[in-house]
Every structure is written in C-alpha cells, then in structure tokens.
Design brief:
The chain is an alpha+beta fold. 40% of the residues lie in helices and 21% in strands. The strands form two sheets. The chain has a four-stranded antiparallel β-sheet, with helices on one face. Strand 1 and strand 2 form a beta hairpin. The longest helix is centred in the N-terminal third of the chain and has 70 residues. The N and C termini lie far apart (115 Å). The C terminus is likely disordered.
Amino acid sequence: MKPCFPDQTIQRAHILSRHQQGSTLIEVIVAIFVLSFGVLALMLAQLGAVNTSINAANQAEVTRAVQNYIEIMRAEPKMAARAFSHGSGKEETRVSYLVFDYSNFNTSGNDCVNKLGLHLSNTPTISKCEIKNGQITVSWQGQNNRSDDQNDNNFTYSLSVNDGSGSNNDQPNADSGSSNNQPNDDSDSNNNQP
C-alpha cells in the first residue's frame, strides 16, 4: 500500500465537494420544476372550481326567474272556450269546455329576458329565451371548464305552467265521458276535469 499524504486527501475532498455542489444546484432546479407543475395543477383546479361555481349561480338564477314568472302566469290566466266533436250526423256529440290560455304571455328574445328579469354572472350569452303557450325555455352559454369539450357548457332550463298540476288545454275524451288531458312535451299524464 502506498502511503497517503495529507495533501492528496485534501485535494480529493476538494474535488468531491466541488462535484457535490454542482449536483445540489441541479437537484434544486429539478425540485423547483416539479413543484411548479404541482402549483400549476392546483391553479387549474381552482379555475375549474370558480367556473363551476359561476355556472351553478347562473343555473340558480335562471331557475328562480322562470319559477317566479310561472307563478305570475298561474295567478293571471285567461280562460278560453274550446269545442270538441265526436262522431258524425245524428250520432255527433259536441262538447264545449273551458281551458286556461297563456298566449297573452307569449314572447321571445330580449323581451323574454326582460320579463323574467334575468341577470346572469360574467355576462354569458343567452342563446334562447322563449315564453310560448305556458312553456318557458331559457338556453345559455356557461363558463367553459375544459378546453377539449365545447358541449359541457351549454345549459337549458324549461318549465311549463302545467308541470306538476296536469295539463288543462287539451281536448276531453268523448268515449269515456271524462276529460283525458294529454301531457305537454315532457310533463306527466294526468286525468283532470276541465
């Protein structure tokens, strides 16, 4: 074995410490890089939460406005007389009856938005607002949570005066002698007297 001189040992230690300092700096840069990706992911999650919150607030606002206006429509309906004929000649039976008529509330576009008093957050585009024959439909563009899916931010809310209380504006069934009200597009079928 060769004897080890103190000068050589110090020289080796100095060379090793110089290499270790460089590798520590690289480790710190890598750690900051990895940490920045973690912070970026948290920021994206926060942005998604804010957009979801805005969409929920807009859905609640549309629901409130439409339900309030439906209550106004229910409180102030017009009555209309309708007639129904069954059979022909001597066997013909004619039945007259009254129905609620909500056509005086019909409107669309900005007039509809103003009647409902809609005030949505972050000024989303209301693509459709229509009140027609007791049915209110509002469609709007929400906050986009993801850039890859353009369809997850289109919202539609629709409510009919007759939802939950049967339909009052269709013909009675002459065969059974009682009225059989046909449902509107998506309400349940109920048997009610006109």
